Amino acid sequence: MSLPDQVDELYNGLHRDDFRRVLQGEDEKLSKYIEQSIVRLHRIVSMMLLKKELYQGPTLDVGSGYGILYRAIKEFFPALLPYSVAELKPKQVVIDGQDIPCHKFHCDQDRLPLEDNSLGMILFCDVLEHLIVDPMWTLLEFNRVLRPGGHLLITTPNAAGAIRVKYALSGINPGREIEYKPTSIYQRHNREWTVPEVQLALQHAGFGDFDFTTHAHLLDPIEKQILQMRESLGIETNTHEFFFGPEIFFVGQKHEHRSLDDDLDPRHRWPEPLYASFEGYKKRPERFPIVIGEDYQ
């Protein structure tokens, strides 16, 4: 189901300035990133508050930047504790005197060092678009470690956002964060997603009971006019405006246990059209193409 998406400075009882004060700490570099991302992070936590009573821990925060949301989880979602993180390059994480477990997890390649059915929530915020090789590997691994009824929360830029059409018509590349980063290939957006694609992937990974929004309230007058032009141009118009906001917030609940250890139906392991239909492509590489070296930033 679609969620209400009118998130502004004060939404669902959480004012952006109060949220900023909760997140900020003594780490100057982290504080700078938080300030740059405060609007997006505020939207994520505000949307989580809508279904707060449904979410239970333990929580694993994957690729968030070494616990950037920990203070918000502790303040607003105590039921999501205990909290741990998973990152490409593990390191000691201490926030407010609390040691935060940090697991090594190369999303396209690794298995999580966690037991089956051991988590209640996985946060996967603005990471999906960075994957390169095999996103179903990652989603099926998330299914394995979530207990039945557990939740997977994904946020990612919306490849079908109306703003992309506006950019293209202005001669601007509609992709986001697509600059080449030779030593940090996972730091760029390698494949962006639409709402139906996120839903398709999660369905094949054993999830259901979906809630989502694209924050369509952020559509500006030009973007709304572009969407209104679809009918006059003969473009199919049965897709509602709320599919075309700039960002996807998507939550799925684990319905069926499916993991990489199972003999999965190829429809679920390599779902088309997310994966190419040619059978020769539906396999893991013998030699993994991406190596995270010491020069990775």
What does this entry look like structurally?
With 297 residues, the protein is an alpha/beta fold. It has one domain: Rossmann fold (3-Layer(aba) Sandwich). Helix content is 26%, strand content 19%. The chain is built from 8 helices and 11 strands. The protein has helices at 16-23, 28-49, 70-76, 135-145, 162-169, 195-204, 221-228, 266-269, and strands at residues 10-11, 14-15, 59-62, 83-87, 93-95, 98-100, 102-104, 119-125, 146-157, 207-213, 247-254. Strands 7-4-3-8-9-11-10 form a 7-stranded mixed β-sheet. Strands 1-2 form a two-stranded antiparallel ribbon. A two-stranded antiparallel ribbon has the order 5-6. A hairpin with a 2-residue loop joins strand 5 and strand 6 (98-100). Helix 1 (16-23) packs across helix 2 and helix 5 (162-169) packs across helix 7. It is globular. The two termini are 38 Å apart.
Note the main sheet.
Answer: 7 strands, mixed
Count of DSSP H/I helices: 8
Q: What general outline do the C-alpha atoms trace?
A: globular
The CATH homologous superfamily is called Vaccinia Virus protein VP39
Low-confidence stretches: none
The total tally of domains equals 1
CATH class: Alpha Beta
| Structural class by SSE content | alpha/beta
Rg from C-alpha positions? 19 Å
Q: What's the number of extended β-strand segments?
A: 11
Q: What is the terminal-to-terminal distance? A: 38 Å
In the CATH hierarchy, the architecture is 3-Layer(aba) Sandwich
The third-level CATH topology is Rossmann fold
Whole-number mean pLDDT: 90
Helix content: 25-40%
The portion of residues forming beta strands comes to: 15-25%
Q: How do the SSEs run, as a string of H and E? A: EEHHEHEEEEEHEHHEHEH
Largest sheet, order of strands side by side? 7-4-3-8-9-11-10
